[in-house]
């Protein structure tokens, strides 16, 4: 299959490109710089220069493809305004990617986050939130999935807040960055809140399976660790970096503080049964042992 991918040179995207190429797919990767184009080529993809704001480039990439995977996001969490800008940018990009696929039956796999279900692990049937700092992303995903009756085999892979590889990535990675800046491996509240997690290489397999097999309008959970206590995550970070581990105010984490403080376990049981996905890579705590001081 000829696949067009956005975000193909990031932590998750580079793993997805490698997985697709290994499975025999031909990949074109959106590349916003010369260095990202070089990384795409090194991974076996053909770069297409442009960014998420280059809507005509996105339409052209989707038009020439037999399937599309969207992963790119600005990831600027410095302020509510920056987050809102990234959410709007992504919504417009998804509309551009989806347009050429209407009526073709071709797949469009987009990315989402696992939702929160108070008092239990969320499942694939739970709705995505449309409120909060990134609630607009839930609305964008809903619009994509609603294209199934219009001839787009649209699917969403919901990633947990931490997608990791060699100790890097996701919310755990943000905790690590905060620890290095502040000198404390901090966690909000009592640290009992749980975060789901998945290794990037396992997530990549799920994106491929969704591209190849997922029915239109479906959602899937790339969850390996159903819920790891944030205090346990901070404890490994502190030990690996040689820093004290302690509770800090959630405001210390900026706009994401309330999200960091939320208990948000998630289940991937239906995904494993429905697509035969079996994560085999190290779990989050084991992978954090790769952190250097």
UniProtKB/TrEMBL annotation:
Residue ranges constituting the NAD-dependent epimerase/dehydratase domain according to the UniProt record: 3-213
Pfam families: Epimerase
SUPFAM superfamilies, A to Z: NAD(P)-binding Rossmann-fold domains (SSF51735)
Top-level taxon of the source organism: Bacteria
Chain spans, region Disordered: 115-136
PANTHER family according to UniProt: NAD(P)-BINDING DOMAIN-CONTAINING PROTEIN-RELATED, PROTEIN YEEZ
Stated name of the protein: NAD-dependent epimerase/dehydratase family protein
Protein source organism: Streptomyces albidoflavus
